[in-house]
């Protein structure tokens, strides 16, 4: 059974940093592109970024709203994906979801979601 | 402002059929990228409902169906049930190398 478990969320002050972790199980982690999404309170889903599998170069892509502040990395030996968030803003307050991406006809979709972890940016 | 456009809400009585539209542009849906749909029940993480425009993952009832034409796509739910009350999101991929979503549609079962 595929499982994605996020950790590391919490309350953080504006301008500070936070790192989220996503521990995966139930599949060969290194074979998949992993992605982070977020959902602000009462709002819709927003893509944050993804990291391709090593087979696709292990490269990253980010949404414009977080580019330059957030960094996604992975440790295939531990089956863990990370989201390093720097220079946090109040508008980054959201539930952050770790997801597994699959590809169909050259486009990505999410086939598994974690349960989410809440990040609150407030002074 | 979401890249894909969905109606904020739809409603229907039990047993009825409802559709949710998703409109994109020439850089995403119109560029040939497929549309995928997710269901988010209150207080839970989203769940994949349809991928590749019309393919249901194992376990998704055949009451749910999807289609795509040009720069738009639709999700249809037939035989509406109370348990279908949820938020529904469409998603595609954009030529700018980004994953794009609709703003979500709240389905109310009357």
Describe the structure.
The complex is a heterodimer of chains A (123) and B (110). Chain A has 123 residues and is mainly β. Chain A contains no helices and eleven strands. The model of chain A has no long low-confidence stretch (mean pLDDT 96). Chain B starts with 8 loop residues before the first strand and ends with a strand. In chain B, strands 1, 3, 4, 7, 8 and 9 form a six-stranded mixed beta sheet that branches. Chain B has a three-stranded antiparallel beta sheet with strand order 2-6-5, with no helix packed on it. Chain B has 110 residues and is mainly beta. The model of chain B has no long low-confidence stretch (mean pLDDT 95). Chain B is built from no helices and nine strands. Helices cover 0% and strands 45% of the residues of chain B.
Explain the layout of strands and helices.
The complex is a heterodimer of chains A (123) and B (110).
Chain A: E1 3-7, E2 10-12, E3 18-25, E4 33-39, E5 45-51, E6 60-62, E7 70-75, E8 80-85, E9 94-104, E10 107-113, E11 117-121
Parallel strand pairs in A: 2-11
Antiparallel strand pairs in A: 1-3, 3-8, 4-5, 4-9, 5-6, 7-8, 9-10, 9-11
Chain B: E1 9-12, E2 18-23, E3 36-40, E4 47-50, E5 64-69, E6 72-77, E7 86-94, E8 98-101, E9 105-109
Round the mean pLDDT of chain B to the nearest integer and report it. 95
**Most residues in contact: chain pair:** A-B, 24 and 28 residues
Report low-confidence residues of chain B grouped into runs of 5 or more: none
The level of helicity of chain A is under 10%
N-C termini distance of chain B: 29 Å
Largest sheet of chain A: 7 strands, mixed
Radius of gyration of chain B, in angstroms, nearest whole number: 13 Å
Count of discrete alpha- or pi-helical segments spanning 4 or more residues of chain B: 0
Structural class of chain B, please?
mainly beta
Principal-axes shape call of chain B = globular
How many DSSP-defined strands of chain B? 9
Instruction: Give the number of helices of chain A.
Output: 0
Structural category of chain A is mainly beta
Helix/strand order of chain A, N-terminal first: EEEEEEEEEEE
| Pattern of helices and strands of chain B | EEEEEEEEE
Instruction: Point out poorly predicted stretches of chain A.
Output: none
Rg of chain A, rounded, reads 14 Å
pLDDT averaged residue by residue of chain A: 96
- The separation of the N and C termini of chain A measures 40 Å
